[in-house]
Amino acid sequence: MRLDRPDTQGRFAQFGGQFAPETLMPALEELEAEFTKAWADPSFHAELDSLLRDFVGRPTPVYRAARLSAQYGIELYLKREDLAHTGAHKINNTMGQALLTKRMGKSRVIAETGAGQHGVATATACALLGQECVVYMGEKDIERQALNVHRMRMLGTEVRPVTSGAGTLKDAVSAAMRDWVATVDGTHYIIGSVVGPHPFPWMVRELQKVIGEELQTQMDGSAPEHPKPDVIVACVGGGSNAMGIFYPYVGSDIDLVGIEAAGYGLDSGQHGASLVAGSPGVIHGSMTYLLQDDQGQILEAHSISAGLDYPGVGPEHAYFKDAALVRYESVTDEEALEAVHLLASTEGIIPALESAHGLAWITKEARSLRGKVVVLNLSGRGDKDVEQIVEHS
Amino acid sequence: MSEKLAELFRRCRDEKRSALLPYMTAGLPTPADSVSLFTTMAEAGADGFEVGIPYADPLMDGPVIQAAGERALSAGSGVEVGLDILRAVVESTGKPAVVMTYVNPVLRMGVESFADRVAAAGGSGVIIADLPVDEAGEFAGAFRSRGLGLVLFVAPTTTDARLKRVLAAEPPFVYGIADLGVTGARAAASTHIAALVARVRQQSEVPVVAGVGISTPEQAQAAASVADGVIVGTALVRRVIDAADTVAAADSLRTAVESFAAVMRRN
Q1: What percent of chain B has pLDDT over 90?
Q2: Strand-pair partners of A135
Q3: ipTM of the complex, rounded to two decimals
Q4: Which CATH number fits domain B3-261: 3.90.550.10, 3.20.20.70, 3.40.50.720, 3.40.630.30?
Q5: Does pTM surpass 0.95?
Q6: Nearest-neighbour CA in chain B from A21: distance (Å)
């Protein structure tokens, strides 16, 4: 059963919670109270909705991918989050949290980023609202997503390289949390996915569910060109785009499929498939599925896609998995790369490597999906990945 | 046993001094040489220890303890080795020792099994950096039933309502976070600790141990003048990381711990 809100402990059944240092707990309590108030306040929604419409460009279109549909014998639709301002769904969350930051009277924002899309979206919201912004980014990701680093700097954000661990998203989240422990009085941490201690997973889901709500209107079965979906597919790293498009449909008869990064293959041990191949534990303040060794040390993830290169996943996804409300599958780096080229050459759209994981799964499953209406959440555009894709070709 | 810890705080109160409780990552510089560093610190005047289980993602720790953890892990340390070291430290020094860890290794082993192991090793209690009172129930119960205490934190940001909940959980001592931010050196002494101790004292006689950001004898003296105990971590761990070998590490630690032990007495 879908839960409107986690319980009073911030749990979705056994998952979620608040495994955070005491220093942060008062800020988490304040955040929950402030977001609850804001989310019930029509004036907050009015301000956010007008920004989402006029600044972000929502609603994003749903596009019927005619050539791929014909090729696969399915009805393939793309929810075009790549057309949102800054090029990904991440901005839905950052606009909301930046407005909340203003409402809480805080003037400084910190964020983590993997692929750089959340960093750019945070930098954009902060530029718009005149907030100071610092983004933590692993040094490996700074290298492979250089374009987004330049964009953040142009937007007036300070990008701080993170050298600990493998220099990827996990380390960036840890670094942002350490900053927050020291600066919590005047700083808000705009976390980029449905991860972290309560209330973040719930709050980010509420801010992202606009994707699925729009889809419900756009594909309501009212006309042959607006059929109801049979299957909805989205990639899952932390899981915010998947949560955004799935949530309004959870518990319905529509098949929801989340695609994780299998990296070099699940057997290689080098992947980011926490739900498919991980086990329950605590990472970044939340009980969820994660990649860990037998002594409870968190393992490094691997994915060609920086946004999916994360050893944990949002706790509500963990709940969906155990309750069998959503199915989780995985595809490899290689399959995702092929899907990028496929969409570019067939439909004229270069997708982000993250989103290409969803298309790769649809390609693999085309036979079993035959005749069905399939919606892929095209969560981001691939400009940031072009250099990396060329290197791998 | 947490009784050993209670006895230490009683004795220190009688002697009008604060207890010196150094933190050291278990398995530094190597698992084999780790225990000798604790015995050196005991000889130099440490009253008890925080035995740190190295962890790959320590959210409450600054760069020095992060680096120490990575080094100890690659030398083969972890929760299993850490608990073996705990046992050896308690046996060889006779001092009370608490385990300092993050929550995931405890969950992975199982809370009950972990509690069994700490009790069997002769540990006095457990500090879990990412376990606030809100999530502590199951852990505190498992530890208490084995005579172990679960230490809880009070930070400068802790509200009165939260403080009440922390004290109601009856920790063996309260870890008073002397400064916002992660573990590591600070230029100045804490301006928070006196107020924090006073807030606890208004409601409870539970010992308050100050930690985070205490890296010089001056800072330790300021904390010792108000708190029941003082935790020094980064300043000591750094000496081990920087030392050429175990002998040099022990010499350096001895000097440092002596300088901290010398300022524990209240004026």
Answers
A1: 93
A2: A111, A159
A3: 0.96
A4: 3.20.20.70
A5: yes
A6: 5
